[in-house]
């Protein structure tokens, strides 16, 4: 490919600006917002574009996660090391997730976004959130555990449940590792299949601008920017809290791990914009795994941490859970005790697992959290207050979850002593240029 003149290229790119993915997505989001504002009825009909793009991506997530995890475990060849990496990842997830929950409580108490609403719980429309409440009631601890087990080996792939896929992939990787030399043909077959699936994703992701346009147009056309007015305080508080968490908490973690959170955000800008447009962090899961490898994280750690983090490391969802719970409590005039605060944090830690950033998942987990608070001080029906703006907050949940998982991958890689410092320095020195190049590269097969 010949280099274009500087005036025709985007910063850090060797191709015309209009062919750069993140610029295309930015333009698509802007056009979607404009269409939703000017022609809301027409914009609503664009929903299928966003749904189709998300469906195409989700179609490939199950096989990609399976191949990545199985290959990662089998290539390590040491089950003790697999267990060690998994344990380190889970410890990190729980510590940072707990911190996110506490921050949501602290900010909610300080800012008091729901104070002054004076809502009468008896006049709330329970029917509006009945569907979310029924799903939450069915999600008991035992049901949550049983849901991880698929009906059959292949049912996990058919349903696309991340936790079920993780279970099947880990079991398969462990068995192949135990086969020793006899398992090598299976490793090579899985590696080849993984390369095929990643190349398919490379083709699908080029449709990201169309998907972002359709999803954003529908959001603005259906819900309208005006709905942000009455509850702007909650939305602004959530976004600012999430930004504070990313820049301060994850920023400090990143600094201790040898990189800048600002440069890291620049590096994954394409993925951030796609998530912003689609409200789903799953749409960029395969590309995040590729980018973490190019950043210097080891293949085995990426294969274990990123997919696992999508179910166990949901910082944005955790902030939302506690902050929204306090908002609703303040709106209905409920005075929560210390024990109820502790219950909120404990229950939210459990219910958030498996809410992988797909629109609506955070609302179901919020219903489960409200229903578990002793004394039921905040009726689940109170969720009707924020039903209209939940879609606007789902983008922030997914964005924060994405950044948190990327940082976790680098941290665990360094913790395990498998972070390539040369690659990390190279990326952090030129995050915009390298990030753009990676988005356009074809996936490179992982050596066994």
Summarize the structure in words:
Keywords: Cell membrane, Membrane, Symport, Transmembrane, Transmembrane helix, Transport. InterPro entries: Na-dicarboxylate_symporter, Na-dicarboxylate_symporter_CS, Na:dicarbo_symporter_sf. With about 450 residues, the chain is mainly α. The protein contains 21 helices and no strands. It has a single domain (about 20-440), classed as Proton glutamate symport protein (Orthogonal Bundle), CATH 1.10.3860.10. The two termini are about 30 Å apart. Mean pLDDT is about 80; it is low at about 1-15 and about 440-448.
Binned strand content: under 5%
Which bin fits the share of residues in helices? over 70%
Number of strands: 0
Name the shape in a single word: globular
CATH class: Mainly Alpha
Q: Provide mean pLDDT, rounded.
A: 79
N/C terminus separation: 30 Å
What is the assembly state of the chains in this entry? Answer: single chain
Pick out the low-confidence regions.
1-13, 438-448
CATH T-level fold name: Proton glutamate symport protein
User: How many structural domains?
Assistant: 1
CATH superfamily: Sodium:dicarboxylate symporter
What's the Cα radius of gyration? 22 Å
- Tell me the major beta sheet: none
Pfam family, one: SDF
InterPro entries: Na-dicarboxylate_symporter, Na-dicarboxylate_symporter_CS, Na:dicarbo_symporter_sf
Subcellular location: Cell inner membrane
Membrane topology: Multi-pass membrane protein
